[in-house]
Specification:
The protein is of the alpha+beta class and 290 residues long. 28% of the residues lie in helices and 27% in strands.
Length: 290
């Protein structure tokens, strides 16, 4: 029986619900985070909570509990469900309001935390490599909906995933409004060329927490990492490509739009980073049981 946290209460999943008048449901008006627990420890919990509150601030949404209370609620939800390895989804909705758009008509935001057991997102593809496709759907313009707001309105990402599914790809690759590489439908993207690593600047893609850790690992291992604009030519001719994300972790891409990347196998640098990331997630984090 899974317990879900809703506004201070822990309820069985069958009883967990929100009003049909909640603006999170009606308009995608709210924010969320994805967090992972490994071996009884929550990885980068403080960073994820900080990012959740930054997203809320950006849309003028006042989270009704403190960061300390949110942290404890996440840990207690894991304890209630007796989970040591899990995916954690805290989300804040604008709350119940009228059918109009005005967020000021929603007096009380809701806090919800969902946890579940989580295995490797891409299964055997971590060993085989993913096939990605570029999609016609462009990433939201930064002056329309900044991608660093993790809002409940994920339709842009879903449209990209739909197109990838239709084209037979394991993951979608977004371009931005100028035709430059942005990110995947749910992860950040890196390429490797001549033993140097390149990734798009975070202005036009999410400031990923796993992205940041991958950069840190790579630099500690002596690799040059550049944040720079990338185009289709760069990904088609890369020696290696990998993506990073909380759910995806670090995953290799071996084909893009039918073009084989490198020798069509997960690259040596990518594999090195994957192995080190796996070691770190098994060693550090916020203990669930204190």
């Amino acid at each position: 029986m899974t317990y879900v946290y809703i506004d201070g209460d822990y309820v069985h999943e069958e009883e967990a619900s929100v009003s049909v008048f909640d603006h999170g449901l009606l308009y995608g008006d709210g924010v969320f985070e994805g967090i992972r627990a490994y071996n009884g420890k929550v990885f980068k919990l403080e960073e994820h909570i900080d990012r959740l509150y930054r997203s809320a601030k950006a849309i003028k949404l006042d989270i009704p509990i403190t960061k300390t209370e949110m942290t404890e609620a996440v840990l207690e939800t894991l304890r209630k469900n007796e989970l040591k390895d899990a995916y954690i989804r805290p989300l804040i909705t604008r709350g119940v309001g009228s059918l109009g758009l005005d967020p000021e008509k929603c007096p009380k935001p809701s806090v919800i935390i969902i946890v579940q057991e989580w295995e490797a997102m891409y299964g055997d593809l971590y060993n085989q490599g993913l096939e990605a496709v570029t999609v016609s759907v462009r990433r939201n313009s930064i002056d329309a909906l900044p991608p660093n707001i993790k809002s409940l309105n994920y339709l842009n990402n879903i449209l990209a995933k739909i197109e990838a599914n239709v084209k037979g790809g394991d993951e979608a690759i977004f371009l931005n409004q100028q035709g430059k590489i942005s990110e995947g439908s749910g992860d950040n993207l890196f390429i490797i060329q001549e033993n140097e690593i390149y990734t798009p600047p975070s202005l036009n893609n999410l400031k990923g927490i796993t992205r940041k850790k991958a950069i840190e690992i790579a630099r500690k291992k002596g690799y040059e990492v550049h944040e720079t604009d990338l185009g289709l030519f760069d990904i088609y001719t890369a020696d290696e490509i990998f993506v990073t994300g909380t759910a995806a972790e670090i995953a290799p891409i071996v084909k893009v739009d039918g073009r084989e990347i490198g020798d069509g196998e997960p690259g040596t640098i990518t594999t090195e980073l994957m192995d080190r990331f796996k070691e770190i997630t098994g060693e550090v984090g916020t203990p669930i049981d204190g």
